[in-house]
Every structure is written in C-alpha cells, then in structure tokens.
Amino acid sequence: MIPEAREVHLSRKDRKVLEACCRSPVTLQRDLKRARIVLLAADGRSTRSIAKEVGVQPRIVSLWRHRYADHGLEGLQDKPRPGKQPIYTKTTDKRILKLLDKPPPQGFARWTGPLLAEALGDVDVQYVWRFLRSHKIDLVARKSWCESNDPNFTAKAADVVGLYVAPPAKAIVLCVDEKSSIQALERAQGYLKLPNGRALTGQSHDYKRHGTTTLFAALEVATGKIIATHSKRRRRVEFLDFMNSVTAAFPNRKLHVILDNLNTHKKNEDWLKAHPNVQFHFTPTSASWLN
User: Fold this and answer.
1) CA 257, 250, 169: angle at the middle one, nearest 5?
2) Which of 54, 191, 254, 277 has the fewest Cβ atoms within 10 angstroms?
3) CA distance 242 to 239
4) CATH 3.40.50.2000 fits 153-184+211-290, yes or no
C-alpha cells in the first residue's frame, strides 16, 4: 500500500539546485531520479504519474517525497549505513605496537609478522602485515640515529646553517673533512684480448695492496669545486699542510671553514694567527652530518 502523498513545497534556492542537478552531465542516476521526483512532486503531480515518468516504483516516489518534506535537500542524501563491525580496532593496533617494544621470543633475532600474530593469539597475520605497512614499520631494515648532547647545539647549528643559507659577502665557505683507512689497491686495467679476436675492457679481479691512504677534501659550497689530496697518515701536521694548500688556492680571500670536532681540527690557534683570513666553524658534537 502506497502511503499518503506528502505535499512538496520548493523554495527558489532548492529549485535552482535540483534543476542544476538535472542538467549536469556528471550527476549520478540515483541523484538525478531523486531530483526529478521532487521537482515533479512540487508541480503537483501524483505519485503514480511521477513513478511512471521517472521509471521507478511508486513506493520509491513516496519515500523521496517524504524525505524531502521532512529534511529538505539533506534528506535526498543516503543515510549512513552501519555496515559490518570491524574485527580489529585501535586497541588491536596498540597491542601490536606494545608487543614490538618487547624482545622477540627466545631463539629469534627480531620480530616477524607470523611471530607477532602467534604472540597476539587472536589477530590474523595478514592484518599484522597491513598494519605494519600502513605505519611504515620495517621489521628487517635496521634503523639508527645519533643524538647530539652538545649544550651549545642550537648556536653552533645556526652558525653553520647560516653560512650555507646566507654566506658573507665576498667570502668563500668551505666544508673540510677527511676519510682515513682507504684501501690503496692496484688492479691491472686496460684491454684483454680473447682467443676469438675480441677484446674486453675492464680491470683484473686480482690486485696488489699498497697499504692505506687518507683523503683530505674541501668542498666550496657555492660552486661545488673540490680540492683534494692524499696522505699516508692523518695527523695535525697533515691536516695543516692540506689547509695551507687550500689557502693557496684562494689567495687574498676570506675563508670560512666548516669542520667536525676531530682532535686534529682543534687547538690550531698558532696556525690561525698566521692566517687571519681563515675562520674555523665547528659543527655540534655528534652532528657531523651538518658538514
């Protein structure tokens, strides 16, 4: 049985909205039918005639007449459906995170998805993997970090970053560092002629050791130019020799040199007095990544 038809009274604003909805080529069919039902009902059409013209059952026409009469345009939207209750909730997510803070079971070096699911007991392993992926938690890759305990971290970091962002006028900003214990290997390189007449280019798998070497390098921040040299040892004397070659490369220029806190970089006041155009800037302790 069709309920008694409700009278529909449209305001000018609502009529414009519904007419625009009917004209739009991107309107969903369900929204188009609802808009036509309300417009025809506002023109005084009967429920059955509207149903025949729109192509729906009379009860559908009656439904949307009542919904608009009671709630206006908002009544033409679908009501939220409860749907199926989720099996796993935020409480489950907290249980997974709490378990990750604990050591893995005896005999295992780290947690895995199946181990987590087994320890939780009532959580599927596939949900465990989805949760880990959504939170970008990688159980295999090793993460590490270094925290600086320098009490003057802020001031030192601001000094170094300031040189990068706004270097002094007509001055050269250099990042200086060294890499020690580099294997000095000699390999046979060139062409290898094969019996079939072809030739291969490359290097031999065998090599000859020549001990280790230390690389000193200075990067000019503005241009990317690099000044480098090798030395057999990494002492203060080798460091100052390298700085002499750096100052010779930039005669009569003010140099701001950024260094880490290696012991050979400190206590060089005599050399700095002899080179007043050079100023050392030290990164905070345990923050050599600023260099």
Assistant:
1) 65
2) 191
3) 5
4) no
Other residues' Cβ atoms within 10 Å of the Cβ of residue 220: 17
Residue 225 Cα distances to 179, 216, 231, angstroms: 18, 14, 20
Distances (CA, A) of 245 to 24, 119, 160, 227: 74, 62, 23, 9
Collapsed DSSP state (helix, strand, coil) of residue 96: helix
Output the pLDDT for position 3.
59
Average pLDDT over residues 215-226: 92
The C-alpha atoms of residue 179 and residue 277 are separated, in whole angstroms, by 26
User: Do 257 and 279 contact (CB within 8 A), yes or no?
Assistant: yes
Residue 61 contacts residue 51 (beta carbons within 8 Å): yes
pTM score, two decimals? 0.52
**Residues sharing a CB contact under 8 Å with residue 146, sequence separation 6 or more, in sequence order:** 286, 287
Structure tokens at 38: 């309300």
38 burial (CB, 10 Å; 0-12 / 13-18 / 19+) is: buried
Dump pLDDT digits (tens) for 46-104: 889 989 999 999 999 999 999 988 888 888 888 877 778 888 989 999 999 999 999 99
| Secondary structure class of 158 (helix, strand, coil) | helix
Measured torsion, CA atoms of residues 227, 232, 237, 239, in degrees rounded to the nearest 10: 30
